[in-house]
Prior knowledge:
By secondary structure, chain A is an alpha+beta fold. Chain A has eight helices and 32 strands. Chain A has helices spanning 6-25, 39-63, 65-70, 90-105, 171-186, 197-213, 421-431, 443-460, and strands at 77-78, 110-111, 114-128, 132-146, 153-167, 190-192, 194-195, 222-226, 236-237, 244-251, 257-264, 267-269, 286-288, 291-293, 302-303, 313-317, 325-329, 335-338, 341-342, 350-352, 360-364, 371-375, 378-380, 384-386, 398-406, 409-420, 435-437, 440-441, 467-473, 481-482, 488-497, 500-512. In chain A, a hairpin with a 2-residue loop joins strand 18 and strand 19 (341-342). By secondary structure, chain B is α+β, with helices and mostly antiparallel strands. Chain B has a five-stranded mixed beta sheet. In chain B, strands 9-16-15-11-12 form a five-stranded mixed beta sheet, with no helix packed on it. Chain B has a four-stranded antiparallel beta sheet with strand order 8-10-14-13, with no helix packed on it.
Amino acid sequence: MKGVTVLQIMMIITVIVAGLFVILMGSVGQTPIYYHTLPEIQFSELLSSFAHTETNLKRTIEKDSDRFFSNIQENPIQWNKSWTSCSDFMDLFGKKLRNAASSYFGSVYVLEGAELNSSISESKVQYVPPNKLIWNYTYKIYLKRKMFGSEVANEINTTRNSKIEFNFLNLDKVYSCAKDFFNQMSTTKYKFKKLSPNKLETGLIQKLNTILENIDNCKSFDKSLKIPISCGGFDCDCNTMQPVTVILILSQKGNGTIAFSSQFNNFVCGELENYCKSGADCGTLDCVSNFCGHCYSSGPVCSPSNSPETFGYRCYRIKSEKKEYKCLKNYDNIRVVLDGFERPEKWKKITLNCGKKHRILKIEGIPESDCFLEFNGVRIENCELDLCDTTKIPRTNGRLLIYAKSNSDEYALGGIDINFALSDCINKLNNEKFVYEFNKLNCSELRNNVKNEIDKKIKNTGIEGYSWNIEVNIKCRNNPTSQFDEQYSKFKILFKEDNSVVATFQGIISYKPKT
Amino acid sequence: MKGGLFEWPVVSIALVFILILFVTLAIGFFVRSALVGEPIEIKTYTEYRWMNYFPSSVLFYLSYPEDSWTALNELAKIKKEKTEPLTIEQIRNKYSEINGLDKLNKLLLALGEETKKEKHTYIIKDRKGLIISLGLPKDKLEGIFVTFPEEYPYNCFYKDMPIFSKETKNMRIKFVYCCGDIKECGDYLTGPGREECNNDPCGVGPCKLVVCKENSKLKECYTEKPGARICLKNEPPKIKFSAKFEGDAKWIKEKIEKEFEGDTKVNFRLEVEKNFEISNITEIVIDFGDSKNKFYPKNNPPDLEIEKWNSTNAIFKFNHTYKKYGEYNVVCTVRDEAGNENKKEDGELIVNLTKT
């Protein structure tokens, strides 16, 4: 047998190679997903992660400033007696802001598989009297992504400066308030013999609060005190009492918060001086949680000044711009009555369809003259109400707050969420797209068809119990009119209940050629 | 010329190799294209870059206005273990206490409209924050573990935006864009062996694969080669359903009513609009309120009158006798070959026979 020639071998090899090429290149498989592994794409992904990190860090501090500054109370500035003005604590304040921000900067440490490390390295504050605070800070962002099985890593390691301006407290007044308070505190003694840490904390807060309430320089602030006390799991003893840290927190709505701390070491053995059983033991002060003083939070049991009452009162936050608490009558037996029946779960949400049934809400257990309601900011001067009465309450979902009055003080006792079927229907219509397709139509026919189209959308929301009128503003420059004459029309839906209009919805219907 | 170039054995072998290679490749590609269709276009580097930039810029677009930024942050921080895709409208109803959802809604609607993915825009609240998904149908987003396939036809790509907060750890908002190349049925690959058109994984249809050789009369095939395979939108049947009492003249759509005076015959009229050449209707299911019936129109059932049935329009008539007074909800469902049904509300009407 003659062997094959070189030429024949080459031809066979060529056919095999070409065949493989065709199969591999033209296979029905999918486009290979390799873009993640391209070094340029890898870096560009890391770069956009960096852009999102940087932007969101800044925006979080800017937009979340209320919560950001509330962090300050966990990082109080250690008060120094030798300070002569607010400029003396600005450096420390800058450091405390850095600490407050660190929980934000460290909250994300993995992003799309990349290692993220962001922190603040330098922090300085500049106060521009009377109400501006400029915070200059230097931050580091380190992003690293390592490909699986590879030694090579993409990294972004950068340090940048940023500046944020906040509306802030008047720091000159803050300084005067804190100085006066800590000066007076240093000369104040607190007498007790043996007391649980909780009671000692309450007693001391009440004692120092009465000082704070009387300082003129502090009057413009919302103020509170924190005195965390621990006596090693036992009752505190006046003979072995260690100094405690007193934190003074000053704030104003929308103007941030600042906190200072100082040591209180003036514990003296003796009869507990501000202990009380009722307001009668406290003269001009209230008796709050068995200590003479002021209410400083919502909830504690109290007895008003000069009153022998030992129950029936609690501390409430009163309705005002400032954070103020007072010892006021507690209506424990408040009843929420709906259509003559008492609700077992009085604060549970009420869902209404006023088109089907009006519902009457009555609050019982508070004298009528001392009770009023508020719904979505609208005040209703008594505590019996037809929830469907549009002359008294707007027909939009919201929260009904129940208030009590005591002299000039008004305070909320609770709230009920109210949902209206009509409000839900209008919310659904707000999300609808109104489009009508036509080419050429008689004007009245167009108007009718558009009304039918809108009518169908209203019915689709599932609303029941209401009637409605649809007013469509179609001008019809030509009759018959074409889609090119009219591109859109405004319309109004008047929702009626017992023949009177209770809500209006306005919208736009756009026209498209019919295909 | 003696000892010329062509006399070298290596040159001859190389020439044969090149010639055979060309011929084999040409035949090979021709056979391959005929058997399995055109090859898939390989993505360019620019497209890869766009896949990276697009989700990132969408996240900036959605979070730029202050109110929608707040809404996104608040939504992300809500504690939730169960993942469930919700439309922005459902999110607005569920979390009405969050401010800024109106703005976010507007931005998402505009984005959905621009990308032609408004039908498939979902928000998923998961334990890591929030996923905003554009393009993937709802059924692909349900389940304990949601995955975003990167292969054809989904080609999902995504970007994460971190959520910084003092209360949470490692939270993010993920924007995922899928099925970007599939905006209508015609965008699916239709080569032999490909099932995407009929399965419609991107939810742009329902779609139907049509081979022009077998459907040469179809308008869409006029401009195509006889062997072409095209993917067409298979619109569900559009119906108009009306009824009248025996003896009445006018067909009425939503409700017919009269006093019950013994056995009452009601006539029904069903008008179906659809491109029957793409996919014909196979069955009509009717629930009269007191009993049910099913017609297979192709079999010419005796109790179904076929008034008209051309390529785009059909009118059927049938009747039913009610033997008791009462309010009857009549529901008519028309199905095509692919199992698509008419809109439920178009097939509903009420027959009310009041007590005398």
